[in-house]
Automatic annotation (TrEMBL):
Keywords: Aspartyl protease, Disulfide bond, Hydrolase, Protease. One of its GO terms (cellular component) is fungal-type vacuole. It comes from the Eukaryota. The active site is at 65, 286. Disulfide bonds join 323-356. One of its GO terms (molecular function) is aspartic-type endopeptidase activity. Belongs to the peptidase A1 family. This is Peptidase A1 domain-containing protein. Residues 49-396 form the Peptidase A1 domain. GO terms for biological process: proteolysis. InterPro entries: Aspartic_peptidase_A1, Aspartic_peptidase_AS, Pepsin-like_dom, PEPTIDASE_A1, Peptidase_aspartic_dom_sf.
Length: 403
């Protein structure tokens, strides 16, 4: 069954937002704005994408996640406490773990408790010198995880969240919680990774260009994550759309007010087989999600167009398909009055056990609404730019066949 990270958005309940950790504002570099281009490693048959991150004197492969905000890595003493798992192998992470270095400084007033759609991670917070390519970030706050019920991709040992700080799931020491929705309440914000990078002189945008990878290859070249510059791939003209307030997120999650939280766009239509099959809907762009998660009726119609049709697996909630099934033709997502085509190779993915699934998933209903996502299956077909400075998203179709 699918076991990679899913956004916690569908699990958001009535929550409160309180307080701020001290942010670390510093001057820009004397030589002006800085930038970096990081090669990515694809894992889990091209369903996850990891970047090399150095903390102190140790390097880790961390999942690049636009759908969350916290940075964390597994500590030396971490435990996998998933049901049915009797060892660390049950959580499917890589092997590298963090040992506090001489530059590590504990954060003694808060801890990290992160709730995702498929589990939780918990551990203390600390500060450490972080390096991403040529960019150095001193005193970056991050979590050192000592227990996990979520899972990895057999390569990564943590997550680098690039979402807005309002999504951060740090908690004051006075708050005691152990799992699930309890971790979505009593949160305190802090200077998360990319916002701290902006303080250090990085241009306030980052870009993703995800490569497709070879069918059947568990790991491989993954494309690029670029900070303050564009990814070095060929692409068409960009369209620009505003980063929208996610209407499905309750106000209680954003301090009682309608605020920007996730990277969210309006999908004006979805079409396939030369017909349009949807009304406009909002979708969160989430590089930590393998699927395109669409309104349930729309997802069912698209999966019925596979030959042979995809069948809903009630246990997993995903549509199972034959590995050699023919996906519906010419699937397109219209955003900003431009239609972005989805390569047929991105319509089917395989699990470790050899089973195959459609990359079109039906949204789960939360609080009476359906929250949609554009995940890896969409992002492989575009260059995406996440602009913090202007609170906008830019998308361009890849004009080369991504590897």
């Amino acid at each position: 069954m699918p076991t990679i990270k899913k956004s916690f958005a569908t699990a958001v309940a009535s929550v409160a937002f309180s307080g701020l950790l001290p942010s670390l504002h510093v001057q820009a570099h004397e030589n002006g704005k800085t930038s970096a281009v990081l090669p990515l490693k694809a894992a889990y048959y091209g369903n996850t994408f990891n970047a090399e991150v150095t903390l102190g004197d140790q390097s880790f492969e961390l999942l690049v996640d636009t759908g969350s905000a916290d940075l964390w890595v597994l500590g030396d003493d971490w435990e996998c406490i998933r049901k049915g798992a009797d060892a660390r192998e049950g959580c499917d992470f890589g092997t590298e773990t963090y040992s506090p270095s001489s530059t590590y400084k504990p954060v003694d007033y808060a801890w990290l408790g992160e709730h995702y759609g498929n589990g939780d991670v918990i551990g203390p917070l600390g500060r450490e010198t972080m390096r991403l390519g040529d960019i150095t970030i001193p005193n970056q706050i991050f979590g050192v995880i000592n227990s996990s019920t979520t899972v990895g991709d057999r390569v990564n040992t943590g997550i680098m969240g690039l979402g807005h700080p309002i999504l951060a799931q740090a908690h004051p020491n006075s708050y005691h919680a152990t799992s699930g929705a309890e971790l979505l309440v009593n949160r305190i914000a802090y200077n998360t990774v990319f916002w701290h990078m902006i303080d250090r002189g990085v241009e306030p945008y980052y870009a993703l260009a995800l490569d497709r990878g070879s069918l059947g290859q568990e790991t491989g070249k993954g494309g690029y994550l670029s900070f303050g510059t564009l990814s070095p791939v060929d692409h068409g003209p960009f369209i620009t759309v505003p980063n929208e307030v996610t209407k499905a997120i309750p106000r209680s999650f954003t301090d009682g007010k309608r605020k920007i939280s996730f990277w969210t766009v309006t999908v004006q239509s979805v079409s396939w087989d030369d017909k349009t099959g949807s009304k406009p809907f909002q979708a969160i762009i989430d590089s930590g999600n393998w699927a395109n998660v669409l309104p349930p009726k729309l997802a069912s119609r698209i999966n019925a167009a596979f030959e042979p049709p995809g069948k809903l697996d009630k246990k997993s909630g995903y549509f199972k398909v034959d590995c050699d099934a023919t996906p519906p033709a010419d699937v397109k997502f219209e955003i900003g009055n431009q239609k972005f085509s989805i390569n047929s190779a991105d319509m089917i993915w395989r699990d470790w056990d050899g089973s195959c699934y459609s990359t079109v998933e039906g949204a789960e209903t939360s609080l009476g609404v359906d929250i949609a996502f554009l995940g890896v299956a969409f992002l492989k077909n575009v260059v995406s730019v996440f602009d913090v400075g202007n609170e906008e998203i830019r998308l361009a179709a890849r004009t080369e066949e991504c590897p």
